[in-house]
Amino acid sequence: MNKTLATSLTTTLFLVMAISGIMMFFHFYNGQVKELHEILGLVFVGAVIFHVFYNFKSMKNYFTKRVFISTLLLAVIVSSGFIIQSSTKGQSPKGKIIQSVLKAPLNQSFALLNITNGKEKLEKENLKYIETSSIEELAKLNKTSPFEIISILTR
Known about the structure:
About 75% of the residues lie in helices and about 0% in strands. The chain is mainly α.
C-alpha cells in the first residue's frame, strides 16, 4: 500500500509540476500558478523522499548504474552553472524596480502606479496613512505586507 501511495503521489505531483512549469515558461499563468508550482514543488520533494524510502530495494540497482550516475552528474553541472551565474549578477533588475517603488515617497509611488485616490483607498480599509512615508513604511506601520498595500491601492 505504501509503495503504491508513494508512487501515485510522486507521479501526480510530477504531472502538476510539469504542467505548471511549462505554463510559467511560456507565461500562460497568473501569480497563483507560480505559487502552486512553488508550494507543490516542496511537497513533491517530500513525495520523492517517501517514494525512494518505500521503493529503495528495487531502486538501489538504478543508483549504481553508469547511466544514472552520468545523468546525475550532468544535472548537477548544468544546475550549478545556472546557480553560479545567477548569484554573480547582483540584484535583479525587477528587484531593483520593486524596491525603488516600495521605498519612494508615496506621491512618487502613486504616480508610477497610476494611483489617484490612494489616501482614500487606504483609509477605507482602516489603514494608518502618513503622507510623507513610503509604501514600505506604511506596511510596517499597519503591520502588513507592502504588497498587500499595493493590492489595496490598485483595486
